[in-house]
Amino acid sequence: MEDPTALDPAFRAVLMDYEARARSEDELMSGLPEAEVARRLDEMLLCVGRSAGVFLNLLVKESHSKRILEVGSSYGYSTHWLAEGARAVGGRVTSLELKVAKTEYGTAQLKKAGLADYVEFRVGDALVSLEALPGPFDFVLIDLWKNLYVPVWDLLYPKLAPGALVVADNMIHPPSAQAHARAYRERVVACAGMTSVLLSVGNGLELSRYR
Ligand SMILES: C[S@@+](CC[C@H](N)C(=O)[O-])C[C@H]1O[C@@H](n2cnc3c(N)ncnc32)[C@H](O)[C@@H]1O
Question: From CA 97, how far away is CA 124, in angstroms rounded?
C-alpha cells in the first residue's frame, strides 16, 4: 500500500470521498436481496478499490504509458488513478461509459482533484466507441459488464501498441463473473504476441502485454 501522505492533497481528498461512498454502498448492498441489488446497480460505484487503483497508477507511471484507454468508467474512481498516472507521464485517458450521469459525476470529481484536463469521457456503448477509436493504445483497463470482455478484446487487440499493457478487472471476484473471466483469459492467450498473468490484486486482475 502506498504512503497516503505522498498523494497530492486534492487527489487524496477525492479518493477518500469515493471510498467512503463505496463503503456505504457495500454495506447497503449486503443487506439487499439479489434482485434489488441488480435493479439498483447503476446507483453503485462498483469501483476497482484502493489496491487495484494504486496498482494501475503504478503501472502507468512505470511503463510511461501515454495513450490510456478505460473501458467502463462508472462514476470515475479508477479513472482518477489512471488520470493521476497520465499527469505524471504526460499522457491522456480516454474513458468509455454507457451512462452520461456517471461521467458527469466523474467530471465534477476530476475537476476537484485537478485532473479534468487529463481525461476525455466518451458516452455510449463501448463497443461502438471502440470501433470508432483509431488507437494505438499503450495502456488499457477493461472493467465494464463482464459478458462484454471478449467482444471488447476482439476490437481492442488490433489497436494495441507494441509493449501495450492491458488490465482486466474481476478475474476472481465476484464468483458470478468467473465464466466470463475464464473466456476472456483464454481469448487473450490465444492471440499472437500476448503474455498474460492472473494477479490476486483487488478483485483479481489479468495483466497482459502485447509483444
Ligand atoms: C464495474 S463498473 C466500472 C467501475 C470503474 N472502472 C471503477 O473502478 O470505478 C462497470 C461500468 O461499465 C459500464 N458499462 C456496461 N456496459 C457498457 C457498455 N456496453 N458500454 C460502456 N459502458 C458500459 C456500466 O454502466 C458501469 O458503469
Answer: 6
Query: What Cα–Cα distance (Å) separates residue 81 from each residue in 70, 102, 151, 203, 211?
Result: 11, 17, 25, 16, 25
In this prediction the pTM is 0.97
Expressed in angstroms and rounded, the spacing between residue 2 Cα and the centre of ligand 1 is 26
Cα distance between residue 27 and residue 37, in whole Å: 12
pLDDT above 90 for 11 = yes
Residue 24 pLDDT > 70: yes
Question: Which tops the pLDDT comparison, 54 or 5?
Answer: 54
- Per CATH, the number for 4-210 is 3.40.50.150
Mutate to test the pocket of ligand 1, among 44, 56, 98, 170 (most ligand atoms within 8 A of CB): 98
Cα dihedral angle (55, 202, 205, 4), rounded to 10 degrees? 0
- For residue 142, the CA-to-ligand 1 centroid distance in Å is 9
Who's near 147: CB < 8 A, 6+ residues apart? 180
Closest atom of ligand 1 to CA, residue 99: 25
